[in-house]
Amino acid sequence: MAEPEQPKGDPIQGLRSVRAQSAAKEFLQHALSGGRLSTALLFEGPDGVGKERCARALAQCSLCLAKQPDGDACGRCAICRAIDAQKYPDVITLARTLDVLTQQEQTGADLKSEIVVDKIRELQRERLSYMPHGAIRWVIVRDAHELNANASNALLKTLEEPPANTHFVLATHRPSELLVTVRSRCQRVRFATLPESDVIAILASRGVEAALAKEAAKWAEGSAGRALAMADPELLASRKSWLERLLAALRAGKPGAVVEVSEAFSKEAAAKEGDEVLVVLEMLERYFRDEAIAAATDARKSTVLAARSQLVRQTIASLDSNLKAQMAVESMLVRLRDVR
Amino acid sequence: MSYLVLARKWRPQTFTDLVGQEHVAQTLRNAFAQGRIAHAFLFTGPRGVGKTTIARVLAKALNCLSSSGPTVEPCGTCSACEEITRSSDVDVREIDGATWTKVESIRELQESLPYLPARDRFKIVIIDEVHMLSNSAFNALLKTLEEPPPHVKFVFATTEAHKVPITILSRCQRYDFKLLPAQKIRARIEHILKAEGVGFDDAAVSLVAREAAGSMRDALSLLDQVIAGSTGALSGPDVARLLGVADRQVLYDLARAVLAADPTKALSIVQQVTDQGYDLHAFARDFLSLWRDLVVARIVHEPGSMLDLADEERADVLAIAKSADAADLERLFLAWSRTVDDVARAREPRWVLEMALVRLAHRPALVPVDELIARLVDLERKLGSGSAGSDPKAAPPRGGFTGPQRPGGGSTSTSAANPHPTAHPAPHGAGPNGPNVPRASAQPTAPTQSSAPPAPGRFEVVRGGVVGATAAAMVTPVAPVAAPASAPPAPTPSAPPAPKWLENVRARGNQPQRPSTDESANNAAPEPAPPPPRVDLLDVRPAEANVDVWASVLAVLEGAPLAILEQGVPLEVSAKKVSLAFEANSFYARKVSATDVQEAVRRAAQKAFATDEPPVFELVTGALPEKVPTIAHRKELQRQAERAAKIEAARTHPFVKRFLSLVGGDVRKIELPGDIPNT
Lengths: 340, 679
Ligand SMILES: [Zn+2]
Ligand SMILES: [Zn+2]
Fold this sequence. Notes:
The complex is a heterodimer. By secondary structure, chain A is of the alpha/beta class. In chain A, 52% of the residues lie in helices and 7% in strands. Chain A has three domains: 15-190, 3-Layer(aba) Sandwich (Rossmann fold), CATH 3.40.50.300; 194-231; 232-338. Chain A has helices at residues 22-33, 51-63, 78-84, 117-128, 149-160, 180-183, 196-205, 210-218, 224-230, 233-252, 255-271, 276-294, 299-320, 325-338; strands at 40-44, 91-94, 137-141, 166-172, 187-190. In chain A, α4 runs parallel beside α5, α10 crosses α12 and α12 runs antiparallel to α13 (299-320). Chain B has a five-stranded parallel sheet, covered by helices on one side. Chain B has a four-stranded mixed sheet with strand order 8-11-10-9. Chain B has a two-stranded antiparallel sheet with strand order 6-7. In chain B, β3, α6 (135-146) and β4 (152-158) form a beta-alpha-beta unit. Chain B is flat. Chains A and B meet through α1, α4, α5, β5 and α11 of A and α10, α11, α13, α16 and α17 of B.
């Protein structure tokens, strides 16, 4: 049974506690043991597949008091535990939302959708300028694509010629949005989507009930992060029912039905937190995509279904640019009907 | 303990070491030889091509103690050279423009400059990423640049020279650094690998050089990555795996699958690539560059250096290109270039890849017009000699003329659901109408197909002979459809000012009482306006004359659903009053009873009639006769007329007629783009 607050999941105990990602782990372990691990790493791959977890595990490997013969961290010593609990002072996380550097100024600054240059300067001034002898420090930048241009530029020198024993891990699911000058200075480590079984296991470790975990994993495209966001029975049921209603309106093909469902949908979505419209539309995109693939050998059918999937994708893209949801969904349904 | 990355370990220490920027080194050498050394240098160019490196070498060249003056060959061992290498020379300051923004530090620098150097010949200020300086910093710098002390030299480096103020640029000697050709990167990598004692094969080195895309630092970062990840010698497949780039063979297989119209194979390749955790964006980009190579290989007689490929790869590319059609390849390149953009943006890039591949694999076939004519002539001859039966199906021409069979493909020919077989359902640049917007304002959609007369070119032949065109010199045998005579005149598209003919109906009416504009009306259940008058069987005859006026009102409508209002019967549309009739108790009537919808209509009408006050709105409900004069109905008629005209155009198209006259058959069915498949 789930605890009152959301369980944290399994503790981080070295690289072996990072699920799947064998290629990434193998690379890191190999580079670590060969003494060839760059001090600027770029972890790229889908969101919610364990990049940041892996970065902490890696920090454990370099700082552990009782390293295992294969170079992995023990996971039990004081340092390993402190890193897992995010309480170790020399493993610094830099992020837009959670900013351990500026705890004192919990103002509106955190609402910005980018990491601003002040944070980098502060990091350099207050955390990197002095280093006790023999210490090893890790800086983990979460969602590194959110570094804005000034912040990225401010990082360049530090990335290329970091202070002694300072390691950077930039984690991102949108690597192409990083400045090319930043990417050019990093060793890249790729993270893949997780097998569904791992996603289910991760959900279970967070106290999600089995049937729900399975259903949520189905829609999560190999991302534990997304599966967790899906693993709310009410939310999931509501999303599925909206998917059904959109499809029904499409089948009915009457302008009235289209307008009605678009209006009701966008109203309900607006009342909820987060990107409900986006999530449901992605489910719709996926629905057409699955159908298109099932019909792949039927030229007409699969072409139509693929075109529909693409049309939903375009609608999602236009939503990003703040088009009114109702108009966008309405227009999408009308156009979907016309793609035959 | 920290690993020293190759890019730092192998940073060139002399002008001659630096690969690929020989023009820069040469110019600097000449300047030194002639004693014309500028006091400010600007190094600009892409990332990782040696700007900062040369800046440091330049500092050594200016300050080397082993020579009596500046020298192009700094010794590298004197205390100045050594300290510059270690960034610890007190007279050489290296500043990071991106973090060095405090006014105090600039002032401090300025105050220190007039003093003579402590030991060296010159005080040298290197500012990296100089484009990041603030305006106040640039202004402060400018003063020093205008009257520099003779013992001060500035070196600026930037990837974005256009962000540096012109006043600064004009006081610098500018050097443009270039991206490096792959061969030079390859040679340098080989040199370093040998020195590091790491074995390698050609494919491995080629791959790293290619992925570096012209930047030496990228190349060395990648090299770090592959050395760190492999055991023993570097091999092509290992490097591909470690860099997350697909093996060339995978790309070739995918291209073959698309060309052979085999979506199943294409999808299985995407599956494989995803399972291996490849960067799908990079994959899509590599696939694009393959289409580019294929187009070049197909249309250029001796591609030579236009194909930057190893010998084996070149042979593969040439073989694939040879088996394909040039126009088809161009079409695929174009379509894929759009897919690459979409992949970069999508949260689930895999779906984008898959859907694009499904559509491309099923793209309609292209058949050259001359080949078509040749086939017809051939057929004519055969028919003439009586060697073929009267049933045209008995002797189908090769390839996809009669329908389902496509040359080489074997799968059914696709619907021309979209005349442009691109990654997008709505063709880009489809003309002034842009992507099809079915719910566009009141104007009927004009036919979007090109009106160019059939010219020598190519066909896409689809079932029933309906044809779509692609951008590159294709003809569309479907003649453009003029608005049918029966269709109503097109209302002015999105006409904001009131049309002239409205003048006579313009009048200043009684001021209608303003219903409260309650913000919450949106969220609350539709707040009913004054109860609509009820009429049993509505007389809708007067509405016929109002449809056009109503359309021009709707053209300026904002904030209400067009689709609903288009269903209304405009009993009266004037500056005084808008009266709409709907079927009683219908969904539409309910919607229009909301005050916010009515308000939107009144605002639109006020705008269209250019009056000071909005007109009164009246909602009439009752039983509607079967045929009602509404915009929706008119649009439907229009659509039907257009469809009929298109079908007629296809039926009477010269090619179709000629074909029929040759084979003596009859057209049974014509399908148009956008028709519903019978599944
Ligand atoms: Zn430990
Ligand atoms: Zn020297």
